[in-house]
Write a structure and sequence with these properties.
With 497 residues, the protein is mostly beta strands. It is built from five helices and 30 strands. Strand 1 and strand 2 form a beta hairpin.
């Protein structure tokens, strides 16, 4: 999906009955946004609605409570603009017929502006404050409009205010989809480095890292003249770097900047040369410009081999492009979705820490683990200690997981809890104890975890005795994004934003 991807998307149902749309993840925005019917006009091509991931008609929802039209307060530093029609409504996480979780009275918005071409699922946990005197969306500590993540945490449906995300990589294996885990992470998806970063003071730009260098793997060529601080933001597609760095890229790869679209458009001759060369870039990431604890994230050329359609502003012909942007100043330095194809992000908002590690691409079952809150009991203390699974103290729900696969199925909560309960009972009845788990934490600072059983498709639909487990914290929700549509070619979509 998308006019500058293709990108792996997720499914959200807006309203009652739910109207399902395909969404990209935003790690910056705290609200879900759907495309408004006004987002596609008679002047747009007939496939505009499909290209934008479908739309949400608030008039067709019996539970819509309109709050008004407000300016979108996202990506202003990058020149993005637009308004949203905000309101409260039901929100369903996953496709119909899958046992998807539905949240009532959730703050959502519909958008018509095409700066945000696809619908967006904002997973940042900040509350939303709609300021009527300025028609602006702001964020306040004491606000009644909770984010999706905060609602799930408040309702004890995830064990902590945390998430993990990677954007997926269509060029890996059999088109690896995006992965989103709420309240935990998937240990099978990354190589742990034990490097963590503190949140920045600005809570609207909290995921800031130091890019200490960018180098071509196996070469002495460096592409970043000086270390910089950069914001990690899945909302946007591109990597925004200083002009000098962009010029170094131009020299190293033979790409040319197109002033009209402000993109690096790639013709077929250049593309074939880049594919043949198949260079990989190594981003050295630390907490700041000089920290000695660093992690290297390697991006192959395939992660930069993207396509842009004529739905993108000022692009006359669909073509390949290199997702690098010239930053006007240091507020624009951004590591966007391109970077997160090969990087796995874990953000823990109860400890104000996050980690970024190299993705791992293997065909094996998910290894879902919960990030427990700081005050969790019966956990092993210490920054480098091995987390252990206790047979007492922790609720059964904490050591269970719901796996939500947005394109295929949403496994029922009852299945997860029952299978975990039944397994524990069998182990204890046999006279044994539950096995200790190996340490596969994303970082020393985020090591307060419990290992979880990854649920498989065939477990769907089993029943469970419900009463005694109601109202307890459960394990993390994992959502696998849909595989990017292979047929999403350069001829799809011609709406201008």
């Amino acid at each position: 999906d998308g006019h500058d991807g293709p990108w792996s998307t997720f499914a959200l149902g807006f309203g009652n009955p739910p109207q399902f749309v395909r969404v990209l993840i935003s790690t910056t925005c705290p609200q879900p946004w759907a495309v408004d019917p006004l987002g596609c006009t008679p002047n747009d091509p007939p496939n505009c609605v499909s290209n934008r991931g479908n739309r949400f008609n608030t008039n067709a929802s019996s539970t819509w409570q309109e709050k008004g039209l407000y300016e979108l307060d996202q990506e202003l530093n990058l020149g993005y603009t637009g308004n949203g029609n905000f309101g409260l409504d039901s929100l369903t996480l996953g496709y119909p017929g899958s046992g998807a979780i539905t949240l009532d009275h959730q703050i959502v918005a519909t958008i018509a502006a095409k700066d945000f071409y696809l619908a967006t699922w904002g997973i940042a946990p900040r509350p939303t404050n709609l300021t009527s005197n300025s028609n602006a969306v702001t964020f306040a500590a004491n606000n009644s409009y909770q984010s999706v993540l905060s609602t799930l945490r408040h309702d004890n449906q995830i064990p902590s205010l945390s998430y993990a995300y990677t954007a997926g990589a269509r060029y890996r294996l059999n088109q690896v989809s995006a992965s989103l885990t709420l309240g935990g992470y998937d240990a099978s998806r990354f190589h742990p480095s034990n490097v963590t970063h503190n949140f920045a003071d600005d809570n609207s730009r909290d995921l800031v890292v130091g890019i200490q260098s960018i180098a071509i793997l196996g070469s002495a060529v460096t592409l970043l003249p000086n270390p910089i601080l950069s914001f990690v933001d899945a909302t946007v597609s591109h990597i925004w770097l200083p002009l000098q760095a962009c010029q170094a890229f131009e020299t190293a790869f033979g790409i040319e900047h197109d002033a009209q679209s402000d993109l690096y458009l790639v013709n077929e001759t250049t593309h074939q040369a880049l594919v043949t060369r198949n260079a990989s870039l190594v981003f050295t990431i630390g907490s700041d410009r000089t920290s000695t604890d660093v992690v290297n994230i390697t991006l192959p050329y395939a992660s930069f081999d993207l396509q842009v359609t004529t739905a993108y502003p000022n692009v006359r012909n669909a073509t390949r492009y290199f997702p690098l942007r010239r930053a006007a100043n240091d507020t624009q330095y951004t590591l966007g979705r391109t970077f997160l194809q090969e990087a796995y992000l874990v953000a823990d908002y109860e400890r104000s820490k996050f980690s970024i590690d190299q993705c791992r691409f293997v065909e094996e079952p998910a290894d879902i683990r919960a990030v427990l809150p700081p005050n969790a009991t019966n956990r092993t203390e210490g920054p480098t200690s091995t987390p252990r699974q206790s047979t007492r103290g922790l609720s059964r729900g904490v050591i269970a997981a719901i796996v939500v696969v947005s394109t295929l199925f949403l496994l029922l909560l009852s299945t997860a809890l029952f299978l975990r309960w039944r397994k524990k009972r069998r182990v204890l009845q046999s006279g044994g104890s539950e096995p200790k788990q190996s340490d596969h934490s994303p970082s020393a600072e985020l090591s307060d975890i419990q290992n979880l059983d990854a649920l498989e498709c065939e477990l769907h639909g089993e029943a469970m005795p419900p009463p005694e487990l109601h109202g307890i914290p459960i394990g993390p929700l994992e959502m696998d994004g849909g595989v990017a549509v292979a047929e999403m070619s350069s001829t799809d979509g011609k709406a201008e934003r």
